[in-house]
């Protein structure tokens, strides 16, 4: 078997690639692989999960949080229609329709890595179109969430309920940090400072990240 090139190794582990970007947000398309039945499938990241974009030309890696995941038609011509069939029957009777779909990930940029340093502010340049997108590693998430400045950026999202996004990002970080209760306490304190003028909103988010709701 031929040895894989570095590019092939990167592609194997990447989630997808950038379709459009700015210094504040990005849109990426998830690559399709084959499921156990040989049909196309996309590996979708969790809402609130952390992504890393390999920005080779800029010589830093962008970090972002997923705020939306959308699956729809590849183009305006091949639009899906309701067929009244279960997913199992669709795989048997209409397997081609899965190849006509694509999954897009929308993420908010919250920082970047340059060398061995993590910065919790917007990068000097956006990722390039076709840069590869990866799930951030546990170690990268741990470094990024040592401070909580990124919560302020998430709180300003208008495309989805920002309370849900804040809670989801904290839950994802909590899991990546091996269910560190001290992290939850620190995150709650950071939220208390950020939302000190909106008690009802604060309580709503704290309920979504309390330990008993994460089991």
Relevant terms:
single chain, 215 residues, alpha+beta
Structural features, described:
The protein contains seven helices and nine strands, in the order αββββββαβββααααα. With 215 residues, the chain is of the alpha+beta class. The chain has a six-stranded antiparallel β-barrel. Strands 3-4 form a two-stranded antiparallel ribbon. α5 (162-176) packs parallel to α7 (199-209) and α6 runs antiparallel to α7 (199-209). The chain is globular and about 55 Å long.
Share in β-strands: 25-35%
Question: Number of DSSP helices?
Answer: 7
Task: Tell me the total number of β-strands.
Answer: 9
Low-confidence stretches: 1-11
Rounded radius of gyration (Å): 19 Å
H/E topology pattern: HEEEEEEHEEEHHHHH
Shape annotation: globular
Largest sheet: 6 strands, antiparallel, barrel
